Every structure is written in C-alpha cells, then in structure tokens.
Amino acid sequence: MFKKEWCKVKLYNREVNDLLTKSKLPDADYVINPYIGCTHKCIYCYAEFMNRFARCSEKWGEYIIVKDAKKDIKCNDMEEKTILISSVTDPYNSIEKKYRKTRMVLEQLVDSEANIEILTKSKNMLDDIKIIKKIKNIKVGISMNTIDDTFREKIEPCASSVDERINTLKVLHENNINTYAFISPIFPGITDCKKIVDSVKEYADYVCFENLNLRGNHKKVVLDFISTNYPYLMDLYNNIYVKKDLSYWENYQKDLNNYLESLEIDCKYYFYHDKIKKQ
Fold first, then answer.
1. CA separation for the pair 266, 140 (Å, rounded)
2. CA–CA distance from 79 to each of 15, 28, 114, 115, 178 (Å)?
3. Which residues on adjacent β-strands are paired with residue 277?
4. Per-residue pLDDT tens listing for the chain (279 residues)
5. How many whole angstroms separate alpha carbon 91 and alpha carbon 139?
6. Alpha-carbon distance 247 to 6, whole Å?
7. What are phi and psi of 143, to 5 degrees?
8. CB neighbours of 76 closer than 8 A, spacing ≥ 6?
9. CATH of domain 4-278
C-alpha cells in the first residue's frame, strides 16, 4: 500500500487571463485545465512537457499550480464545439477537495450549449454530480488501464483504486449521465482490455482505447519499470518503443474489434496519435 507522504506536493497559485484555451486534440475544440500538475504520480504521465511552462523548481509530480482566472468562462455560440476538462491535469486530483476550481468551472458551464466532457481517474468527481446533472450536453470518462489494483498501485500510486473507478462509472450511469471508459494507457503484455471491458460494460455507453505512448523523460522511467518488474517483456517493449514496430497495436486492435463486435459495444481508438480509428 502506498504511503500518504508520497502524494504530497508543493502548491503554487498563479493568475491566468482565461481558463478556456483552444485545443489541437482530435476530439476537443477547447480545453480547460484548472491546474498544472497532478497528485496521482502516474509513472507514464505524458503531461511532463508542461514543466517548461510551469517554471517550478520541483520535478513533475511534486508540485501543483492552482490557476486563478481573471475572467469567467465565455462560451457563447458553441453549440457544435466540444470543451474537454482536462487535458494535462486530472480535474479531480486531491487538491480539488480544497480549492474546488473544477467545481467553479462547471458552475460557469451549466447553461452552456457546448458539448462538455470530463476525463478523470478520480472518485472525487462524484462530489459534483448534482452540478453535472444540470449541464445539458455532458459526458464523463473514467480512465483506467487494469483491474489489478496491485499493478495500479505501482504505476498510479496516489490515484483512486480500480474498484472506486468502476463504482464511479456505476453511480454516474445510475444518475443517467452519459459515460465512457477510457482504457489508457494500454501496457503491452500487461493490460487486459477485455477484462476491463467486462467490468465496465454495464455502466459505460462506449469505450475508448489508447496505447502506451512513450516519449520524453518518462520513456526511460517506464522502460526501467518494465525491466525491473517484468523483465520477460523487455523484448516486446524494445520492439515497440525502440524499433518502432506498430504491428503489435495493429493486431491488438483487430482482436479487440472482434470481441467488441460480439458485445455490440461502441468504441474509439487512439492508437496512432495522428489519427483516430473508429470501429
């Protein structure tokens, strides 16, 4: 079990002009990130690139910047636009319990005509379920990549447990909120997507899949983790992440497609990061 002190971070406040920013993501026109940084301490976090904008002396995962916006969120004439909360932080990391920046954002979006999407791996988002139910066009994604909580503790030591995430989907579903499971990142040879789908299929309206994408400083961290804990998988990881062989993902997607078709579950793939593949 992880120690609570592992999840401590240095807090900063920073004034920003606006929380709403344009996005280059394939399925989001705008993003809102109430924080920079996160308390989950995921070893694979791609958002580490934010370090160069954060201007903090601590390492990524050891700080959070709480954003104080000068302006309220203005999203008039956005009927066909999608706003994602969030892309480089978890909007319900543990700091949200104190600062409620995500809640403030949702309160400003209650009357919005935009498509609002929340992506989190935290059970804490249920704190805002009453507000979420007031937003007309909203869906909530719960991120997970395993049903093995021992593995989850190794790679996401300060995040909600597997059971807590499944229960979060269940409660959202019971409250008639549009939900999806975001199975990400898929660790080759470790993540069993079929078992995850089986655990959430009653509560998720659809499922998304994203492969483990290694770049930047966390590439070495993850490969060292695999070498230490799963040495028998190193040939596979070297083939994918050093030799850049994509055939593993191509075959993986074909196999998943056959399984999902048998269950009649809608899905979306984010395996290549330059395009989306739909079932």
1. 16
2. 29, 13, 5, 7, 18
3. 269
4. 344 445 688 999 999 999 999 998 888 999 999 999 999 999 999 888 888 888 888 888 889 999 999 999 988 778 889 999 999 999 999 999 999 999 999 999 999 999 999 999 999 999 999 999 999 999 999 999 999 999 999 999 999 999 999 999 999 999 999 999 999 999 999 999 999 999 999 999 999 999 999 987 889 999 999 999 999 999 999 999 999 999 999 999 999 999 999 999 999 999 865 443 433
5. 14
6. 37
7. -90, 135
8. none
9. 3.20.20
Residues 6+ apart with CB under 8 A from 269: 208, 209, 210, 253, 276, 277, 278, 279
CB 58 within 8 A of CB 70: no
Give the closest residue to 209 by CA, choosing from 159, 259, 151. 259
- Tell me the chain's radius of gyration from C-alpha atoms: 18
State the Cα torsion 73-171-1-188 to the nearest 10°.
-80
Residue given tokens 């593995």 in the structure block: 151
Tokens for 111, please give them.
């009357």
Contact 218, 44 (CB under 8 A): yes
Measure CA 25 to chain center.
13
pTM: 0.92
Single-letter code of the amino acid located at 28: A
- Beta strand spans in the chain (E): 10-16, 20-22, 30-32, 35-37, 63-69, 82-85, 115-120, 138-144, 178-186, 206-211, 267-270, 277-278
Side chain identity at 200, as an amino acid letter?
Answer: V
Pull the structure tokens for residue 143. Answer: 């991120």
